[in-house]
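Hi everyone, sorry if this is the wrong subforum. Our group has a chain we'd like a structural model of before ordering constructs, and none of us has done structure prediction before. Sequence below.
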Amino acid sequence: MPDNGLTCLDLWVAAGSRWETATETGLAHFLEHMVFKGSRRLAQGEFDRRIETLGGTSNAATGLDDVRFHVSCPAAAAMEALDLLTELVLFPSFEDRAFALERLVVQEELKQTLDQPDEVAYQTLLERACGSHNYGRPILGTPTSLDALTVNTMAAFHRRLYGAGRLAVVASGGVVPDVFHERLGSGPLSQRDPVSPPQGVEPRLTIQPGHDHIKLERLECARLMACWAMPPAAEHTMLAGLDLAICLLVEGRCSWLISRLREELDLVDELDLELIPLEAGSLAVLEAGCAPDRLQQLERMLPRCLTDWLCQPPQPQALQRACRQTVTRFSFGLESAGSAAVHMGPALLRGHATPLDTQLVDLGTWTPTTLHTRVMPLFAPRKAHWLSVMPGDSAS
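Answer:
Right subforum, don't worry. Here is the predicted structure as tokens:
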């Protein structure tokens, strides 16, 4: 984006919560915090001060598969910002006092999350749907798991995962490619030792079908939630088909579930279906909110509406509408340097990066018949794990 005055620098690491062992729950996110507490050459707080002096901002986020460290700054300062970012992420200092203090910060963040009933419901769904798979573990950890973590455990986790073959850098916006690549080639990223792939990580996600019921304090309305296993993120053509199917189901008043459950029956107050692309198998998570006295009716009607939807291919005009909506959303989503980096980072990290317009090409390959035979059956109600959530005085 040569006319963009800003440069977005993303450093991605294949070190999300999926890669934790059973005794490391919450460690990937805790490490993300600790990285900002200083490095071999940066005192605590120096990274933030220098990035802000350059006119930039920084942040980080831990996901199930990976961790993203992000800097946005004026294009003229991009190389200095890249040097600071790689120093911080690759060579954290892990001082005992900083570790103890940051543990308190992470524990407080966990307490705040556990105080939000919507977050508790979402994590409960993942835990029960994913079974023993790491995708069902809480990214923030648990009070017990955080108490058990040590500096040595964190340092070992960093050595095990923050190495060559598990790192990717994306620069977008005001970028001079030759200068960028030359800086990378002479910097510490190019000299990083390779690490062996972790052992014992589940190769493919499966969902445990079933239907559970819980009650949560301070929940504003009842919820019916569902979770399906979907193809992994590397299967980009399938993911484009899934985007179309989700658009057909829940986007706009003409969509299948919205038109029936909200417009005709006035049964739901809100309805959302999200696709989460993941390396070991993606997740589709549905959430429908309704009045508590209508939850039982929603439990009957929502699976029935899905079953009806599966009976025949979508009408051509409905698929055309979904394709236009998906193209528009995707195109607008790539207008900023930051969103382009977020789109490219995970694919580059997993070794299957494609041109930015690949999804647009993939969308055009789907027909009503292929969508009906290959994608729509993935949303069969019997393949999902369902969770009904009611407001109540206590969880059960």
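For your construct planning: The beta strands are 6-13, 57-62, 67-74, 167-173, 210-216, 222-230, 270-276, 282-290, 385-391. The first strand starts at residue 6 and ends at 13.
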